[in-house]
Design a protein that fits this description.
Chain A is α+β, with helices and mostly antiparallel strands. Chain A is built from 9 helices and 11 strands. Chain A is elongated, with a radius of gyration of 31 Å. Chain B has one domain: Multidrug-efflux Transporter Regulator, Chain: A, Domain 2. Helix content of chain B is about 55%, strand content about 10%. The chains are: A alpha+beta (about 300), B mainly alpha (about 100).
């Protein structure tokens, strides 16, 4: 496995006190946290710093880390003989274990797999994943399947990085940015501790026609000038199929025409509406006859949309 | 081929009634920290049953965000955490508004 010098990452001496370590971490976190930093590579840097602090802030993890000795950063190394015994076999390969994983199991119970460790129940970690679904999948509900690589204890209690296939039923009516909880699909608990949960961050892909706001949907409805003035019955799409919409006479640009109950709906029966937002579209190419008719209209009308703009 | 069982997902929205204990368990915050967040208006229980608060499932999202901020910035002070959380909530609301306006 590759060595990472956590003390160097935090910029502290190997003899630093817990307070010095915390102060150093806070300064770096303020500098590189992606919520506050616009620097390129900030997120990566923050992860390194957070990983270092995660190990060094806990007295037992720090002691276990110190026992690995001091190496050059990035150097491939094997942990000292005592570690192999804890893992139970001399042919155990540390290649597929990340340095951070070694200490993840240490939380007040000694080294992973150590005999005589107290049998305190330890709840499993929660996992998080971002999932992208289409508008259609969100509208109807869907089943999604994806892969995760998780670190969890095997039969003997030793930590391994294992690939996992997860399949989740997403109920209909979820919106972009919503979070879902999948109970029990997180990390395994130990010593009878409950399994962790999986949290999903949902991204719903934009639809070319519909924009969602909560359960309501909005779509632009282009109308010809005569449809807006005279009113019309127009054929429009909705997620559930095409319908005829009655446009009232005198419809103005921006007017919202409501198609009741045709928004997103949830399993509990609540649903939103679909709003068709009127836009007045003007033909750019007109023949001589149309031009003549428009001129007649112009002469016959006293309508002034800029009356309010006179001084 | 091994069939993978599919699991139900719970949408963390305004429905649901969680107890303080459940919220503590799901978020990783302490009860004291939760209390300070409620006092500062950063977290709103939906109602109280007898002497105990009940929370919507969405509160889990807020509480977990608070825990992430607490750990990311090593914040010891629950009041500072509540202030940071209020700012983050304001930023998220503004980003949503920007996204809606296109």
């Amino acid at each position: 496995m590759k060595y990472k010098d956590y003390y160097a990452t935090l910029g502290v001496a190997r003899t630093a006190t817990a307070d010095e370590i915390k102060t150093a971490y806070r300064k770096l976190a303020r500098k590189y946290h992606p919520d506050v930093s616009k620097e390129a590579g900030a997120e990566e840097k923050f992860k390194e710093v957070a990983e270092a602090y995660e190990t060094l802030k806990d007295a037992e993890k720090r002691a276990a880390y110190d026992q690995l000795g001091s190496h050059a950063p990035g150097e491939q190394f094997r942990p000292p003989p005592g570690w192999e015994q804890s893992y139970g076999e001399s042919s155990f390969s540390f290649d597929d274990v990340d340095l951070a994983d070694l200490f993840a199991g240490i939380a007040g119970r000694g080294r992973p797999g150590a005999r005589g460790a107290p049998n305190m129940p330890i709840p499993g970690q929660d996992f998080e994943a971002a999932v992208r679904i289409s508008f259609d999948q969100a509208y109807k509900g869907t089943e999604i399947e994806f892969d995760m690589a998780v670190t969890e204890p095997d039969e003997r209690g030793f930590l391994r990085r294992v690939p996992k296939k997860i399949r989740v039923r997403v109920p209909k009516g979820v919106t972009d940015g919503q979070k879902l909880r999948v109970p029990g699909k997180g990390g395994k608990g130990a010593n009878g501790g409950r399994d962790g949960d999986l949290y999903l961050d949902i991204e719903v892909q934009a639809h070319p026609l519909y924009r969602a706001e909560g359960l309501d949907l909005y779509m632009d409805l282009p109308l010809t000038p005569w449809e807006a003035v005279l009113g019309a019955s127009v054929d429009v799409p909705t997620p559930a199929g095409r319908v005829t919409l009655k446009v009232p006479a005198g419809a103005h640009a921006g007017q919202k025409l409501r198609l009741s109950g045709r928004g997103l709906s949830r399993p509990d029966g609540t649903s939103g509406h679909l709003y068709a937002v009127a836009q007045i579209a003007v033909p750019t190419v007109v023949d001589e006859r149309q031009r003549a008719l428009y001129t007649q209209l112009k002469d016959a009308s006293t309508f002034d949309p800029r009356a309010h703009m006179v001084d | 081929m091994v069939k993978i069982e599919s699991s139900a997902a719970i949408v963390l929205d305004e429905s649901g009634t969680l107890t303080v204990t459940e919220l503590v368990e799901r978020s990783g915050l302490s009860e004291e920290e939760l209390q300070v967040l409620i006092d500062c208006g950063a977290l709103a229980p939906r109602d109280a049953v007898g002497a105990s608060w009940r929370f919507s499932a969405h509160c889990v999202v807020t509480a977990r965000t608070a825990r992430r901020l607490r750990d990311d910035f090593a914040l010891d002070d629950a009041h500072a955490l509540a202030v940071v959380l209020r700012f983050v909530q304001r930023i998220e609301a503004l980003e949503d508004e920007l996204r809606r306006k296109g």
